[in-house]
């Protein structure tokens, strides 16, 4: 054993023999103890690109201008062509909040907003699209190239559940709050089976910091508290955090009373970490069409640090996020008062006999943790896997592309989704525009430079990127000749096709491919002029998908490189950690569980009502070609922790 002493819960032996992972990633690599730690630089794959070579962002078209012409989905839902469920983006965010978080206290660099743009349909009393640069890492950006700090551990280590400091973990665990989590109970605090709020211990101001926005700004003490500060961002994420806190406590309940509280905690944490890794590599990545080289064992020369290119470009898959979340369950779960309260918030409630359908617009789901307990963890987690996520393409739903996290104006709750959305808001916050500008902020290479950095050849035309046949605008009486790029008709949808390639309609709400009046290639050419000027983020999303994958060549290459490094460079990866074998043999607790199994074990949704693989709709070709690896568990491990 390495016998390391690190910040956080020390990597001291448990049960006299086994080492556990530090909270902040320190010491994971015994020969490079700082590698992958929290508060270290994002690593880089490609060249740094600043206009002055130091810090000045590269020039390019206005991000909102690009967004209105490229990222605008015109309120037409386009779903995953392989039947990936909403667990694709929900699990992706759970992993994102485990391995990466930039410093957001840099200088203001707001995006100009042009209210006269003929493609603009939103009112913006803010006058700009807010944007804050990531803080420059100390000692960078003045006489050398600006770098950025990853404030969390790069390892897949359930950071989102436990956090990276003793102080946060001490607050999260049942027991005293004296700065030392090792003298607390093994269990995480879960009042009523749900995550604690900032005021759960009385003084909300003494609770760990959590990000609040939108509706939660009016009641910050009601924010849930977890290992990661972003857990309140949306109800699907909050529900996932709740699930794994319950799973931790369920595992603790299976361990013998003879073990110390600290040993129970460390064993449960090790199993939860392994479960997060196991699901990521055996369900999430295969569902997304990402195939990695076979595991050859831990490689102490591999650097698991999250790369700037992955965090800033490759992992920004916001196109996949659905504009609403739908949950179907027994109407008897809810009182009429609860249903009325949900409707008052903007949730669409449809009761049909004994059943109820709850459609939650994404804006209502932002920073609204109360909805998790009101709807119930079981129905919510089941519902996430019940509908396809959006296609990973260049378009982004207006809930994200225009009104992110904003509180709607009062008195018009019926306009929270679709074409009526602009009536609800008087400001514009555009996540697509922010994603694009974040690449310039972090000095990301251009599109072709980034392709080259990942071993891919340059593209020489826009059609070679998109797979379309022309980069010229058509002769169309509905388009303004010579000014097609500024004509709202240019992005009209003229054809839709379903997952089987059959023509469909907007009303059917089952399209997986659309054809617009103008090609994406033509619009990109009109905006950027040449492929050499293309932002990496825009070009990546525009790429034609690789067969059997949710990604184009560049995004797929970035994911493969990063998730291979996260696996091979992690000494505590589930295929390398001997503690997991000991726990399985000694206590019958097996980390090799599917997400479906973990949901069934920790809610009142029985396994029979869940698909074996919640990441894929059961009837799609991608699902029928994949059979998740499962294990026959010891009967004692099937004990449920909660029934809601």
UniProtKB/TrEMBL annotation:
* Composition bias type Polar residues, residue spans: 634-644
- PROSITE patterns (alphabetical): PEROXIDASE_3
Query: Per the record, a Pfam family?
Result: An_peroxidase
Stretches of Low complexity bias are at 620-633
Q: Which UniProt keywords apply?
A: Glycoprotein, Oxidoreductase, Peroxidase, Secreted
Give the molecular function GO annotations: heme binding; peroxidase activity
Full protein name: Peroxidase
Q: Which organism is it from?
A: Sphaerisporangium album
């Amino acid at each position: 054993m390495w016998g390391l002493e690190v910040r956080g819960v020390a990597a001291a032996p448990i049960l006299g023999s086994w080492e556990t992972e530090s909270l902040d990633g320190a010491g994971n690599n015994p020969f490079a103890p700082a590698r992958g730690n929290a508060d270290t630089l994002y690593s880089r794959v490609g060249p740094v690109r600043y206009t002055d070579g130091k810090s000045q962002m590269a020039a390019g078209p206005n991000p909102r201008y690009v967004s209105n012409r490229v990222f605008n989905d015109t309120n037409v839902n386009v779903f995953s062509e392989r039947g990936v469920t909403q667990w694709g983006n929900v699990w992706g965010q759970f992993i994102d909040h485990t391995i990466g978080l930039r410093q957001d206290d840099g200088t203001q660099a707001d995006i100009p907003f042009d209210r006269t743009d003929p493609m603009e349909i939103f009112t913006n009393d803010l006058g700009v699209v807010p944007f804050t640069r990531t803080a420059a890492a100390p000692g960078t950006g003045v006489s050398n190239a600006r770098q950025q700090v990853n404030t969390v551990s790069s390892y897949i280590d359930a950071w989102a559940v436990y956090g990276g400091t003793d102080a946060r973990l001490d607050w999260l665990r049942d027991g005293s709050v004296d700065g030392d989590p090792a003298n607390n109970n093994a269990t995480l605090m879960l009042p009523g089976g749900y995550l604690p709020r900032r005021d759960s211990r009385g003084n909300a101001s003494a609770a760990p910091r959590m990000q609040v926005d939108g509706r939660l700004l009016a009641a910050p003490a009601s924010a849930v508290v977890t290992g990661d500060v972003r857990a309140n961002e949306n109800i699907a994420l909050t529900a996932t955090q709740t699930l794994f806190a319950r799973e931790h406590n369920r595992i603790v309940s299976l361990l013998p009373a003879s073990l110390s509280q600290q040993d129970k905690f460390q064993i449960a944490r090790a199993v939860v970490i392994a479960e997060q890794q196991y699901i990521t590599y055996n369900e999430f990545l295969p569902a997304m069409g990402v195939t990695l080289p076979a595991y050859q064992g831990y490689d102490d020369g591999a650097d698991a640090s999250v790369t700037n290119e992955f965090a800033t470009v490759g992992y920004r898959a916001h196109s996949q996020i659905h504009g609403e979340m739908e949950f179907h369950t027994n109407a008897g779960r809810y009182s009429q008062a609860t249903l009325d309260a949900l409707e008052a918030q903007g949730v669409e409630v449809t009761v049909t006999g004994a059943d109820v359908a709850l459609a939650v617009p994404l804006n209502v789901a932002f920073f609204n943790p109360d909805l998790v307990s009101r709807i119930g963890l079981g129905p919510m987690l089941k519902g996430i896997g019940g509908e396809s996520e959006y296609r990973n393409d260049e378009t982004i739903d207006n809930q994200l592309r225009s009104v992110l996290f904003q509180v709607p104006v009062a008195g018009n709750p019926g306009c929270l989704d679709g074409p009526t959305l602009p009536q609800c808001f008087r400001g514009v916050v555009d996540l697509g525009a922010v994603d694009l500008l974040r690449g310039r902020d972090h000095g990301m290479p251009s599109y072709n430079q980034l392709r080259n950095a990942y071993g891919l050849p340059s593209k020489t035309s826009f059609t070679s990127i998109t797979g379309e046949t022309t980069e010229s605008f058509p002769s169309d009486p509905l388009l303004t000749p010579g000014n097609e790029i500024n004509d709202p008709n240019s992005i009209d949808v003229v054809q839709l096709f379903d997952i089987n390639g059959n023509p469909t309609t907007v009303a059917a709400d089952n399209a997986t491919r659309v054809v617009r009046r103008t090609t994406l290639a033509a619009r990109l050419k009109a905006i950027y002029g040449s492929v050499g000027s293309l932002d990496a983020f825009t070009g990546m999303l525009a790429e034609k998908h690789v067969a059997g994958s949710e990604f184009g060549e560049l995004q797929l290459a970035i994911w493969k490189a990063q998730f291979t490094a996260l696996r091979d460079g992690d000494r505590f990866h589930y295929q390398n950690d001997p503690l997991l074998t000991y726990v399985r043999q000694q206590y019958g607790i097996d980390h090799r569980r599917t997400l479906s199994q973990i949901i069934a074990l920790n809610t009142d949704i029985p396994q029979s009502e869940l698909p074996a693989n919640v990441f894929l709709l059961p009837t799609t070709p991608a699902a029928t070609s994949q059979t998740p690896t499962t294990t026959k568990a010891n009967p004692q491990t099937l004990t449920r922790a909660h029934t809601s």
